Amino acid sequence: xxxxxxxxxxxxxxxxxxxxxxxxxxxxxxxxxxxxxxxxxxxxxxxxxxxxxxxxxxxxxxxxxxxxxxxxxxxxxxxxxxxxxxxxxxxxxxxxxxxxxxxxxxxxxxxxxxxxxxxxxxxxxxxxxxxxxxxxxxxxxxxxxxxxxxxxxxxxxxxxxxxxxxxxxxxxxxxxxxxxxxxxxxxxxxxxxxxxxxxxxxxxxxxxxxxxxxxxxxxxxxxxxxxxxxxxxxxxxxxxxxxxxxx
Length: 247
Ligand code: GLP
What we know:
With 247 residues, the chain is of the alpha/beta class. It has eight helices and ten strands. The protein has helices at 9-26, 41-52, 80-87, 109-122, 159-165, 184-188, 203-211, 239-245; strands spanning 2-5, 31-34, 62-65, 67-69, 99-100, 128-131, 153-156, 178-181, 192-197, 229-233. The strands form two sheets. A seven-stranded parallel sheet has the order 1-10-9-6-2-3-5, covered by helices on one side. α7 links the parallel β9 (192-197) and β10. α1 packs across α2. The model has no long low-confidence stretch (mean pLDDT 95). Residues 35-39, 66-67, 132-134, 140-141, 161 line the site of 2-amino-2-deoxy-6-O-phosphono-alpha-D-glucopyranose.
C-alpha cells in the first residue's frame, strides 16, 4: 500500500488523474473502474482538461462504475449514471456504449448483479479502479458488515450512509435505501487500485484503512491485502495518520 499525501484537494485530484491518464496512454483500450461522490469530481475535471488539450484519447476506453442506487436511472439527476454522464462522459470522446453502470431499474436486481459481474469478466477485468471512501469505511456501497461481500450484490444502505447521502436529495424520503454494488472481491480483482480522500471527516477512517486491523467492519481495510494500492489524500485526511504515526 502506497500512501501519498498532498497539500490540498487540487493536488490530490491531479495526482489521481495522472495515474488514470498514464493508463489511457499506455493501454488505449484499457478498462477503467470509476467512482462517484464529491471526491472524484476534480480528478474527472483534469481528465476532461487533458482530453481537450489533445493529450488523452478515450475512443477505445471502456469503463465500469462501482455502483448505482436501486430505483434510479439516468432520468434521475441523483443517479450515478447521470453523475458520470455530466461529470465525465459528456465531455470526452468516449463511446457511451463502452461505459457501464449497474442498472438500478432492472426488473430483477439479482439477475442484474450476475450480469454486471459477468460483464466485468468479459471485458477482461479492470486495469485501474478509482475509489472514494465513505465516512464509515465503505468502498463502493460495501457497508461495514460481519463478512466481506464478494461479488456484485444488492446492498441495504446503513443509516449513516443514508444520512451522508441526504445532502444530495430534496428530502429524507427521496434518499434511496438500497443499491447495487461491486463486492469487495470484485474490487480486489482490479489490477491496480487508487483510493482518494479529502477533508477532516475522512481522517480517522484513512488511518483505520491503512493501519487498523483488516476487518469487514472497515471494508476498505481489505485493501491492505491488495498488491497494488495507492491511497492519495489531502492534508486534512492525512491528519490522523500524521498524529499517530508521527509525521
Ligand atoms: C457513496 C459512494 C462511494 C463514495 C462515497 C463517498 O457512498 N457509493 O463510492 O466513495 O459515497 O462520497 P464522497 O466522495 O462524496 O465523500
